[in-house]
Amino acid sequence: MAEETLTNSMVAALSVAGKIPFRSKKIRKSSTSSTTAAETSKKPRLILPLALSIAGELDSALRHLTTVDSQLAAIIKSLEPPSFHNLSTPFLSLSRSILYQQLATKAAASIYARFISLCGGEDSVVPEVVLSLTPPQLRQVGVSSRKASYLHDLASKYQSGFLSDSAIVAMDDDALFSKLTTVKGIGPWSVHMFMIFSLHRPDVLPVGDLGVRKGVQILLGLKKIPQPTEMEELCKAWRPYRSAAAWYMWRLVESNGKAAKASI
């Protein structure tokens, strides 16, 4: 499994579907956040059956994590909690994920904006519209031939009924992982990020993410970064809220990096 972590471009790609702020804790804010009236009117609201964005669910997650892990509890108490916003349809989120892969933030955002314009707006990013766009049309807005084939494969799987927004929301984690990894260009890491930041699934552990693994190393004082095969055992106490714990691992690595720079 390839090692990946959240890069600036990936943060930008995910930021619409799930905000991941990092600030020193000053005033404890509510763990859930609602969209503005304008946002709600523009985008369809998804009903997520089990999500950290449901009122009270993130609070439950943080209570559990502080109870079962005293080391993590100290980190949780020092930072404001993550906030999750449900703004995009699964198809749009997955399309965005494909477009942002392996690109610098500015370049990815520019291509994404042109792609959205080509489709006729974010609300028009639906399988039928994407399939109607030819590879030359997509290349004109900066989408590579490879990513064009990924977008078409995703749209084709929707059109055939293999995937749908409603089915994705209703599937359990294992079934969703199995189905989404059949889409060209969407691997295990991308699925884990989608589950956490777009669907707000509470118990996702991205074992292949280098940042999360580094966070676990720092948290537990390990000599080496744990291997993906070790992560399940090391993090089992965090169940059933490993998504929130993973968020704090990213923040822990960030804070350590800032501390290291400050000491130079």
UniProtKB/TrEMBL annotation:
Q: Which GO terms describe its molecular function?
A: alkylated DNA binding; DNA-3-methyladenine glycosylase activity; DNA-7-methylguanine glycosylase activity
Taxonomy, superkingdom: Eukaryota
Q: Does the keyword Methyltransferase apply?
A: no
HhH-GPD domain: from which residue to which, for each copy? 99-254
Q: Keywords on this record? A: DNA damage, DNA repair
Q: Which Pfam families match?
A: HhH-GPD
UniProt cross-references to InterPro entries, sorted A to Z: Alkylbase_DNA_Glycosylase/TA, DNA_glycosylase, HhH-GPD_domain
For biological process, the GO terms are: base-excision repair, AP site formation; DNA alkylation repair
For whether the record's keyword set contains DNA repair, the answer is yes
Q: Name one GO cellular component term.
A: nucleus
Q: Which SMART domains match?
A: ENDO3c
What does the similarity note say?
Belongs to the alkylbase DNA glycosidase AlkA family.
Q: What is this protein called?
A: HhH-GPD domain-containing protein
Instruction: Tell me which species this is from.
Output: Dendrobium nobile
